[in-house]
Design brief:
single chain, 284 residues, alpha/beta, 7-stranded mixed sheet, 5-stranded antiparallel sheet, 30% helix, binds S-adenosylmethionine
Length: 284
Amino acid sequence: MPGSEHVSLDKAPNNGADESSEDGYVQDFGSNPLEVRTTDHYTEEYVTGFVDKWDALIDWKKRYESEGSFFIDQLTSRGVHKVLDVATGTGFHSVRLLEEGFETVSADGSPEMLAKAFANGLEYGGHILRVVNADWRWLNRDVHGEYDAIVCLGNSFTHLFSERDRRKALAEFYAMLKHDGVLILDQRNYDSILDDGFSSKHTYYYAGEDVSAEPEYVDDGLARFRYEFSDGEQYHLNMYPLRKDYVRRLMREVGFQKVETYGDFQQTYADDDPDFYIHVAEKH
Ligand code: SAM
């Protein structure tokens, strides 16, 4: 397979046991973190300590500025009114959508995330988020209605570890969209991490240098990232390194008719090497 390198990066994998001693604050990757390659593990990775810290440091205002109006423009140009945010997390995009006047439902598979999102909604503008605890693989069971758009943002789809789960999730998204609906899903640019080797595995800084994210270990089936905070505390996420064209193909195979891919919120990514790709998939 192209790019099937098997690299263990500079620091030894950390199983998270030292990350904090309080309940709900400790990540548990077991004795061999590199073997944790299951979709179901995501709820245990977003422990309260990690989520609280991340949200305290990543300034929402700065995030608004760096993201600009890309998603909002995509939605308004298609006459979207009703949006389902399937990866609500701590609520950043849901709050943004509500502020822009979209009717928004906020789903996530992690109850802790939804609790935080609900509190953030109140804090940032007094919004009452309509939250639903739902796993993408069984979305139609727990979320009802039809939507003009579904957003799955913040490199979330990467948490699905099997092709079966990815197909199931995309099929559930497809089914919840109106006949002319649109799915907007982003992902980290794993192609460059997989193909270009060690040199491309740079550290990504957020909020200045307060948080850094670095791939600690990468092979074709796992990208384990280390998140380090300015006080030295560390957390990890185990993710599946999605190739851009693979995601585009899956989207087409589940029925989306047109898939456009943007790089770092620009359409002209061809000669650059963006950190993120954004897929805009239309149903009709
Ligand atoms: N969109 C938010 C943002 O950009 O800040 C949150 C992104 S966070 C990286 C990924 C979110 O996806 C987490 O809140 C996690 O609980 C959720 N998630 C991951 N896999 C999921 C699944 N199978 N079903 C539902 N939610 C899932």
